[in-house]
Amino acid sequence: MPHFPRALSLAPALLTMSLVLSACSGGTPAAPVTEASPAPVAETPPAPPAITPPTPAPGPARLTVSADGHRLEYTDGRPFLYWGDTAWELFHRPNREDARTYLQTRARQGFTVVQAAALAEESGLTVPNAQGDLPLVGKDPTRPAVTPGNDPGDPEQYDYWDHVDYIVDQAASLGLTVALLPSWGIWVNNEPRLGDEPIFTPDSARSYGRFLGERYRDKPILWVLGGDRYPNTEEVRAIWRAMAQGIEQGVGGGDRALITYHTRGAKSSSQYFHDEPWLDFNMWHTGHCRGEQEATKLLADYKRTPAKPVINAEPMYEGHPVCHHVPNGYGDEVDVRNIAYWSVFAGAAGHAYGHRKVYGFDVYDGDKAWQKALDTAAVRQLGYFRTLLESRPMKDRGPDDTLVAGSFVGDRPVVAMRGPDYAWLYLPDGGPVTVRLGRTGGARVRASWFDPRTGTRAEIGTFANAGERTFTASSAGRGNDWVLLLEATP
């Protein structure tokens, strides 16, 4: 994805910052030093950042895995940030106009990926799509329901797969990559308690995968097997492997298809397929509970060998009942921010967002509720996060669990990532953090606070880049998260 430099918004500080300087390791702590706070200034929250829709990749450039194994990039070396939105029913529920509205909105908001299933979960084999078509003849994956022609004005020509083509092409025209699930797991796995209705064998999975690979071999596609299922038996794993083989055959080789696997909650594809050659990058599924220790788990995936990129593709959705239990309340913008920062600062090659009213396109809520849910504070705040991430090169940065003692551990940890001459620390509940300086190069370090809620930045000061120093944000508690920015300076 092209690099879109957008300056971080700077604002007068409304922060009370206390800074405590400790001596170098092993020394006697120095007396507390309190920085004078600036006078309060009335401030208007900044407008969301103007995000230029990505430019489609020119010529033959395709997505691949970086040489260090931790990132996605184009074959010509341009970085790609997986910034996904969840739209599982995109091919099944919306008509052409609604699909276009959705895609244009998400491109404008700065997303780079949309996640959608070809064989949808919600009656995807029995309830026709918005155009009145089903994907398969007789639920047979070796018989995709295709017809000659593709004129949308002629129902005899415009079939289910023509509609998928249209959405994939519309996404590509907006610079969006489709993370395409060939089938939701309900049609592959065999767990009656989840309502599974398996239709695949290894042979039919290979045939169906080859059909998809041939059809979309030249499109901006990331392939996502799975669909909310644990591949717990060898019989099921054999089907998914065969589907991956079919996709690779269809696109013209394993080097032309980036494939991953989407599990159920609280697990990663790495726990099932990490060492298999067809699995190019890993996917985490946080689930929809709090306290899932995403930072600890994502960091473990980041450190696996061989190194493979990892994405948290299903964190807690905004508007989703916490732990699937309404009395627990609903996922909110704080959950979205917390999990996004924990995941990316733990080394994820991007992140995905989801909203309960959007991903089903009125499966659960009628009257176009999904359109009303497209623009939320959480979406705008993810835009601020993307702006921060792209303010520095993605190459040569990664998680650092040595900057803060006890980081990356527990339900609400402080997490940090570092590049050659800077470090960023995420404090999910604000308050104080004691940092071990001297890891970013340079004799001095310039510190500032980044507000994840507004995208604003406030300078703290410049300090000797050695020893330990405690920085205290102006607020603390849930919803008072802050990012401490440290930049080396001569």
TrEMBL record:
Every Putative collagen-binding domain range: 399-487
Q: Does the keyword Signal apply?
A: yes
Q: Which UniProt keywords apply?
A: Signal
- Which species does this protein come from? Deinococcus aetherius
Q: One Pfam family name from the record?
A: Apiosidase
Positions of the UniProt region annotated as Disordered: 27-59, 129-153
Where do the Apiosidase-like catalytic domain residues begin and end? 67-394
Record's PROSITE patterns? PROKAR_LIPOPROTEIN
Kindly provide the name given to this protein in its UniProt entry: DUF4038 domain-containing protein
